[in-house]
Amino acid sequence: KREKEEEEAEMKAIDTSTDGRFLKFDIELGRGSFKTVYKGLDTETWVEVAWCELQVDQQGTQCIPMYAC
I want to staple 68 with a disulfide (CB 3.0 to 4.6 A). Which of 2, 49, 53, 62 is the partner? Predict the structure, then answer.
């Protein structure tokens, strides 16, 4: 069942980079003290990338996406 959920999540991007090149999927790959890493895709090369979101404040309300980190 988990594989099915991951396949469905991969089909639907939940965010895009400001230039539209990178897609973010709702698949969390890892989490640390200052950033969360999601599965992403470079739409120019069709290569899977890590979409990293850096936590700017302690409440975690502002994130800076770092594509292909």
Answer: 49
In whole angstroms, give the CA distance from residue 51 to residue 24: 6
Please tell me the CATH superfamily of domain 2-67, with its number: Phosphorylase Kinase; domain 1 (3.30.200.20)
Q: How many CB atoms lie within 10 A of CB 47?
A: 10
Residue pLDDT, tens place only, 12-48: 999 999 899 999 999 999 998 888 999 999 999 999 9
Domain boundaries defined on the chain: 2-67
How many whole angstroms separate alpha carbon 45 and alpha carbon 41? 9
